[in-house]
Amino acid sequence: MEGLLLAQLLEQLDPLPAGRGAWRFPDSETFVLPLGESALWLHSAPPDPYVELKQGRSPAGRGATAFQQLLRARAGGQLEAVTQLKLDRVVTFSFRGSDGFVSSPPVRLVAELAGRNANLILLDENGTIVGVQREVTADRNRYRQLLPGLAYVPPPAYDRPDPRKLDSTEAAALLTGQPLRRLIQTLDGFGPRLLHAVAGRSGLDPADTVGEADVPRLADALREVLADPQAAAETAPDRATVRERRRSEERSRLEGQLRRELQRRQRLLERRLGDMDHLHKAAERAAELRSHAELLLAFRPQAEPDGTVTVTDFSGTEVELTLEPGQDAIQTAETMFTRARRHEQRLQTAENLRPGLERDLRELRRDLAGLSSLSAAELADRTRREVPADRGRHRTRPGIRVSGPHGFEILIGRNARDNDRITFGIARSRDIWLHVQGYRGSHVIIRADNREVPFETILFAAQLAAGHSQAAASENVPVDWTVRKNVWRPKGAPAGAVHFTAQKTVYVTPVRHAAETDARQG
């Protein structure tokens, strides 16, 4: 939403209505605050977030996200102030503290309505972040992180004049010698919609260079747009077409990104299943290797070191056997027995994995076939969860992936950097975070997906956390666990170093693999 449009809407909230209703959430990206006879609607979905005032009540919605539940609990007081940062797309809603069964102190809700980077941040009285709709880690922005526990830092400041405080001719003259599209970078509060509104009224194309002869009609166009930005935006040429095209492009981008990731996994699974055919062929040689080893042992006096020996097998067929370099007949026979056992063990291990691989492949093919039926919001959510943000910089996905009891996905960090990536780049606020107590070890995440995590799953993950730590050889190891929103990285701390609170502790026997856990629990 463009700064001038936002400023015009906020003028309608002056003075603020005396009463307010309870928050309502029609969907995961929409936040509605009833104010008197109307309601303030906050749409935070990228790439086109906006605020509007509507009459009447909103639908309640079926459920609330973790951030929406936090907002309902903490921002329950009267709305006492609404401020805009210059003409930027940043608005702060200040709420008084509320009294009740559980009282809450004053808070501020910061709405950053900046296209693809749209976000909502809840702050306490001291400006510390209490909750974030979309957390921003150092992997995404090394200069400005948005995480619970950190001090809120507003977007970088800029220096552009406020067009409402300039004479329209003076404002138009600032663009002389530049393309009209530079209006967005020259005057505060303008974006693509108002740029097209100015272009339509002045008769200039956004790519046209503004000459001195164009200044008078450009000044008239600016004067009209500034008088009523909302009306100007609604009559801007091709507004609906531009918005629809952007949404279509964004959807195509997300679908392509997710499709490439799923196809990559499909190829990997198909290769792994194809490798099993080679293991079958290798295992077929196990019987032959054992037969040759037995013949070598039976005719070992005839075999010379580093040579070959021709013997007759039990069916009367002559067989030529070659001894391994530097080995006698007994040693070569033992090598053959070892190879036979290895072929059979590899095949058995692969066959144990085959049902899971075939199931995963079926699910991937079903997901690929259904991509085109997903909504833009579903595509965005799946892309965020399943496509690593640093694809192209790292060859592996962060974390070891394990399927836990009741179908919950569990992530185990491989090292300090991996710990940082799964905790602050992948885990959501209500996911379960685990770490062995008193030892260095892996961060372990249980992906809750807004579901209640059974204690059986927590014990399962705690055993893995203990097994992937320096306490792996111990017994009865304490493992701390809490929800991810209670974990934060201290300022200036290295990757993987965290503080956490509100933890509980369980004592478990360490294991490193899910199969070991199943065996011990069985």
Can you give a write-up of this model?
- It is built from 13 helices and 19 strands.
- It has 522 residues and is α+β, with helices and mostly antiparallel strands.
- It has 4 domains: 3-132, Roll (ibrinogen binding protein from staphylococcus aureus fold); 163-237; 266-378, Helix Hairpins (Orthogonal Bundle), CATH 1.10.287; 396-521, no CATH class.
- It has a 6-stranded antiparallel beta sheet with strand order 12-13-15-14-16-19, sandwiched between helices. It has a 5-stranded antiparallel beta sheet with strand order 5-6-7-8-9, covered by helices on one side. A 4-stranded antiparallel beta sheet has the order 1-2-3-4, with no helix packed on it.
- α5 crosses α6 (215-227), α8 runs antiparallel to α9 (329-369) and α8 packs parallel to α10 (376-386).
- It is elongated and about 110 Å long.
